[in-house]
Design brief:
By secondary structure, the protein is mostly helical. It is built from 5 helices and no strands.
């Protein structure tokens, strides 16, 4: 009898640890898959993620982090494109584009804020993802417009 107890305890420990690993591992792997393109995979092992999951769940935390990382990447790309376009313009063109860019920044922020507020006090995930998705869409659109309308040679603006 005494020999079987340690074996039983060992089996329970092994099975228990596999159950925990099975429930955590696919979620963590999904997190890493989603965030690796943005070089944000360290989030998947952070205590901040664990705290976020306790409040909102893994999907919300990882999606929100991915959208934030995408905004950062698009912001960087937009700034790079904008600076490249400025280099191709004369002084009057640069002034005109700067004025246009300032107005565009005000407009897209106001539009995304209005969409966020229109959702009201609904699901925080829907509100946040909606706002971040709006920002992403406007950044992508602006990059395309800058290249299309201001670059004679699109390779100059990459």
């Amino acid at each position: 009898m005494s020999r079987s107890k340690p074996l039983l305890v060992l089996i329970v420990l092994i099975l228990g640890s596999k159950t925990v690993l099975a429930s955590v591992d696919p979620d963590r792997q999904d997190c890493i898959r989603v965030l690796t393109p943005y070089k944000e995979e360290q989030w998947c092992n952070s205590s901040d993620r664990e705290s976020c999951i306790e409040l909102h769940g893994a999907e919300w935390c990882d999606d929100s982090t991915a959208l934030t990382a995408e905004i950062k990447a698009l912001d960087k790309s937009l700034n790079k494109t904008y600076r490249a376009v400025l280099k191709t313009l004369d002084e009057q063109g640069r002034k005109s584009l700067r004025d246009s860019q300032r107005l565009w920044l005000q407009y897209h922020r106001a539009e995304c804020d209005a969409r966020y507020n229109a959702i009201g006090v609904g699901d925080p995930l829907m509100r946040t993802n909606g706002w971040q998705g709006c920002i992403n869409d406007y950044f992508k659109q602006r990059i395309t417009e800058l290249k299309k309308y201001f670059c004679q040679n699109p390779k100059e603006c990459d």
